Amino acid sequence: MCVDASGELDHTLGIDVVWIALFLAVLLGWWDGPVTCALTLGKFIIFTYAATPISLKIIDLYVVYAITTAVIQVVYMGIVGSFPFNSFLSGVLSCVGTAVLAVCLRIQVNKENKEFKDLPPERAFADFVLCNLVLHLVIMNFLG
Amino acid sequence: MARNIGFVVGFAALICAALLSISAAASIRPISDAHRSAALELFVPVDGSFPSLEEAYEALRTFQILEVGKTSDINSATCPVVLDKLRSPTSSPKEFFNALKLNGILECQIGSQTFEDVASHLQALIKDADSLMDLYYSVLSLLHIKGQGVSAVLSDAEGVFHSIKALSQSDGRWRYDSNNAESSTYAAGIALEALAAVVSLADSEVDQSKIGIVKHDIEKLFDSIKRYDDGTLYFDEKHVDGSEYKGPLATTASVVRGVTAFAAVAGKLNIPGGKMLGLAKFFLSIGVPGSTKDLFNQIDALSCLESNRISIPLILSLPATVLSLTSKDQLKVEVTTVFGSATPPLTVNLVQASSYDKSTPVIENQELHFDTENKIHYLDILPLKIDVGKYTLEFEISLHDPENLNIYATGGRANALAFLTGTIKVDKAQIGVFDSDAESAATMQKLDLSQDNRISLAANHLQRMRLTFQLVTPLGHNFKPHQVFLKLRHESKVEHIFALESSTKQFKIILDFLGLVEKFYYLSGRYEIELAIGDAAMENSFLRVLGYIDLDLPEPPEKASRPPPQPVDPYSRFGPKPEISHIFRSPEKRPPKELSFAFLALTLIPLVGFLIGLLRLGVNFKGFPSSSVPVLFSILFHAGIAAVLLLYGLFWLKLDLFTTLKALGLLGIFLIFVGHRTLSQLASTSAKLKTN
User: Fold this and answer.
1) B528 with B545: CB under 8 angstroms?
2) Using the beta-carbon criterion (under 8 Å), do A129 and B657 form an inter-chain contact?
3) Which chain B residue lies closest to A61 (C-alpha atoms)?
4) Degrees to nearest 5, angle at CA B419 with B416 and B423
5) For position A26, what pLDDT does the model report?
6) What pLDDT is stored for residue B242 in this prediction?
7) A19 Cβ contact list (under 8 Å, min separation 6)
8) Which residue has the higher pLDDT, A32 or B582?
9) Helices (H), B411-545
10) Residue B94 Cα distances to B101, B122, B255, B581, angstroms
11) Mean pLDDT, chain B cut into blocks of 10 residues (692 residues total)
12) Where are the bilayer-spanning segments (chain A) (predicted)?
């Protein structure tokens, strides 16, 4: 935390990390010890997550797949350098973009989400498909 | 090398300019073979004939006077034209005139009947004529017919005389016709020629008082004569922008023709011989004209002057204006008529020869001897002990027979410029290097400039170099030439030129290297010493390398000026240029193939993981519609998406954006339609399930 010229608290990235860490710590009961923390995490995955519907799990899996692919691409770029940069961006942004669209789909399809109660999931899926097609057209153009 | 040539060319140019300046002043030479060859070159018939009768006449008359060329060349083509013009009743007086003039030289076979017809026609034309030119052409044509041997008489000679005279003005000029108020000198010449023709054609004697009035007019005309600085006289119009302006040459030629023709019929005219001589000099000073009309006017007028009844001009000229003392030249003078013909016995006296710069006479009253064989007056100048240089010579011609004074015009004194050249000796040449404070104790080397031995000197910036010599003429006097230069040239071709000062006794230069260090751009090394001495009166002008001097100058300071870039050999521009080595952008380092393929495989692993995960989650196709129509649409939907992805693949591999967009548009429409059907069916199915 830094104090800048105006005297206000300088809102840096540091405070976000601290806040998330604090939240997680509270959630997982960190002060109880690392084993307890791991157990809490494990309990969450096995019990709470298992209750989610399959369609949402599919979408989550898809998101994880997309992000993993993006990470592998970034590692590759880290090794060989960023030439050609447009191809790297194209690859990474396609993964990240499709992950984002999948997250939007998950939000819209999730029955527990009151905001999108009236939206039929097929409509959300159609949007997802359309947006992906447009994204991939742009990606293919940028791929070079 | 180029500089040396430049120097020598400079000398040659100086000498040429000097000689040209002499020739401009007194280069009047009588008509020579140069004019004859020019006439043959200029008057060239095209396909055996000239463009017009007038031009043919000009050509043949010039050839006749100069005694070159043949008339037989154009006889065959031109005679029919002449005959045609003479026979045609509609020919104008000008055409008759040109045809008859030409026939006088060509002598075509024309019957006397034709001439008589023409004569009677001309008589009628003369009666009706009112302009000067018509009268001129008609009267002169009649004169030519008379010259052919056919009798032709002017019936009303007094009337014609009067009508020509009526057009004269008080200042001696003439008008072209009574309507035209403009008077012209050219017209005066025409009118006088016509009046002379009238007098010779008249059957009875023309009134002497009338002739006297015309003589008076001629004197008035000669009052308006104009003069150039070199003593030549000419006639020109008062207004040069008149419509009929012909130029001084044509105007003077016309007046000379008219005046000499009139003098031939009217007897002695009261015109001083000096004016005739001035007119002759005007025609000769033109040299060799470049156009046919100018050459004709010049030669025709000079032939009138050659044998005229007023006074025949005698031209004094020098065949050679540069005399060499070394080759013991004699001063030669020619006195001839304008065409180079012989003169009556006369003596040439060199009244005075004075140096051009100082105007002090060096010789006076020397009579020239006459060489009867070569018709040249000469004088030995060697015994007269004249030194080299430029001189103005003044001559006087005295005719032996006093009666000839009325016939010939000698013009009193005549001036000419002459150069006397000789070998100049370079005496007591010494060169040496000494310290600044020890001038008197300097050791000087003797230079012998007649031989080619090179001296070598060495100096540093604290020393000085001195060069002294004397220039002596063949007669032993001190000589001051136009150019005395010393040049020092460095190994890198940088040159410095110094002019030598001269005192009464010798030429001297002292180069103080301390003061010259900056001028020499601080360049140390070997400097070649060159001495250049030249003058127009010097036969042995030279540019000689004396030797070299090794100069040791201090280091240049920071701000010293660099020596100027030396001129590049101009022809090196056309040689091969230096090769340009292109530097291409080095291609980026690409990773090894194996690594790339490894990562390709690695990227596909998450897909495998995704599929495995899907299987673990228990994904099934239960929701896939079973009845036919929805099945079709579902299949088409998936096929459509697959097709779009395939299109994207093709787009990356080969297609361009526009093709892809077009195909995508079509596929997209299909997909939207199919997708809508499928999804709405699915939605209705799930809604039914929910309500159920």
Assistant:
1) yes
2) no
3) B610
4) 165
5) 66
6) 67
7) none
8) B582
9) 513-516
10) 10, 11, 19, 80
11) 54 48 57 90 83 88 87 77 84 87 84 86 86 90 86 83 88 86 88 91 83 90 90 86 82 93 88 91 91 93 91 90 89 89 88 84 88 87 86 90 86 87 88 82 79 85 88 88 91 88 86 87 90 91 90 84 75 80 83 87 90 85 74 88 92 89 92 88 82 76
12) 17-46, 58-79, 85-105, 125-143
Report the gap between the CA of B589 and the closest CA in chain A (Å). 8
Among the partner residues B610, B617, B648, nearest to A136 by beta-carbon distance: B648
Give chain B positions within 8 Å (CB) of A68: 606, 609
pLDDT tier at A44, thresholds 50, 70, 90:
confident
Query: How far does CA B464 lie from the centroid of its chain?
Result: 48
User: Closest by alpha carbon to B433, among B445, B423, B422?
Assistant: B445
The pLDDT score that the predictor gives to residue B3 is 57
Q: Any idea which residue has 């300019």 for tokens?
A: B17
Query: Which residues of B fall within a CB distance of 8 Å from A81?
Result: 588-589, 591
CB nearest to A61's CB, from B610, B657, B675: B610
Element housing B460 (H / E): strand B455-460
| Percentage of chain A exceeding pLDDT 70 | 78
Confirm if B185 and B237 have CB atoms less than 8 A apart: yes
What is the sign, positive or negative, of the torsion defined by CA atoms of B508, B512, B517, B519?
negative
pLDDT bin (cut points 50, 70, 90) of residue A1 is: very low
pLDDT at position A18 is: 65
Which pLDDT score is estimated for A21?
66
Q: How far apart are CA A66 and CA B686, in angstroms?
A: 29
- From the list A62, A72, A140, which residue is nearest B602 (CB)? A72
Per-residue pLDDT at A93? 95
User: Chain A contacts of B676, Cβ < 8 Å?
Assistant: 126
> Around Cβ A4, how many Cβ atoms within 10 Å?
9
E strands in B400-442: 408-409, 413-421, 425-435
How many CB atoms are located within 10 Å of the residue B246 CB?
Answer: 18
Name the amino acid, one letter, at B278: G
pLDDT computed for residue A17 by the predictor: 61
CB contact under 8 A, A125 and B617: no
The token duo for B72 is: 């037989």
- pTM score, two decimals? 0.61
Q: Which of B586, B589, B596, B603 is the best mutation test for A, with the most CBs of A within 10 A?
A: B603
B689 burial type by CB count under 10 A (0-12 exposed, 13-18 middle, 19+ buried): exposed
| Paired residues of A134 in beta bridges | none
Rounded (10°) CA dihedral B441, B447, B453, B459:
30
Average pLDDT over residues A84-107: 93
- Closest CB to B648: pick one of A79, A125, A137: A137
Phi, psi angle pair for B234, to nearest 5°: -155, 170
For chain B, report the end-to-end CA distance as a whole number of angstroms: 117
- Asked if B365 and B351 touch (Cβ cutoff 8 Å), the reply is yes
Q: Which of residues 592-621 of B touch A (CB under 8 A)?
A: 595-596, 599, 602-603, 605-607, 609-610, 613-614, 617-619
Helical pair B132-147 and B112-128, crossing angle rounded to 10 deg: 160
Burial of B185 (0-12, 13-18, 19+ CB in 10 A): buried
CB atoms within 10 A of CB B339: 19
Query: From the centroid of its chain, how far is CA B625?
Result: 106
DSSP-derived pairing of the beta strands B413-421 and B322-324: parallel
Put simply, whether A111 touches B (Cβ < 8 Å) is no
Q: Has residue A63 got a pLDDT over 90?
A: yes
Query: Which residue in B605, B617, B648 is closest to A58 by CB distance?
Result: B617
